[in-house]
Amino acid sequence: TFFRVIVPMSAPAIIAGLALVFAISYTNFIVPQLLGGGSYSTLAVQGYEQTIVVLDWTRGAVLATLLLVTCFFFIFAIVTVGARVTRWNEVRR
Fold it and tell me: Does the reported pTM lie above 0.90?
């Protein structure tokens, strides 16, 4: 009954939680900056360094746009898959 009742009923909530956690962790800035000590760099850290440290606003804007577009793409994919799973569960009943 767990896989036939519980998992299909909670699939939309699981997928919504996945999208929220992905968006927060993808744009995470503080943890890599503090724990990495400058040796580990993510896209958000590079964007910060380009705009604040190097003062290259163009490259910082490009990195921020790249981060935003890829995040939107992945969240759109997660939501689309979630809608299909939900629709498939409703048809299956």
Answer: no
